[in-house]
Amino acid sequence: MKGDRVEIVVDAGDTTRTYEVVASRAGRRVETAVRRGVVEVSEVTRSGSVVRTARFMATRVLALVEQPVPREDASERPLAGGLDS
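Above: the chain sequence. Below: its structure as tokens.
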């Protein structure tokens, strides 16, 4: 969903660096995968096409923080035409 983001904290030798991948448009999502010692974070469209990918060596990744946008639950929405007592 638009606004979903993943923060990646990487060891850069003497310091750490933080990178962000954000779902920039409606209908896009952010996916993470760890394959063969590489962490991949990708922004993906509804159809599954990859828009952009960030790759990091798994041994250098210190933290991978997924921050989804809060979704509105059906149970939290007010009912249309509800009675207020």
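The chain has one domain: 5-69.
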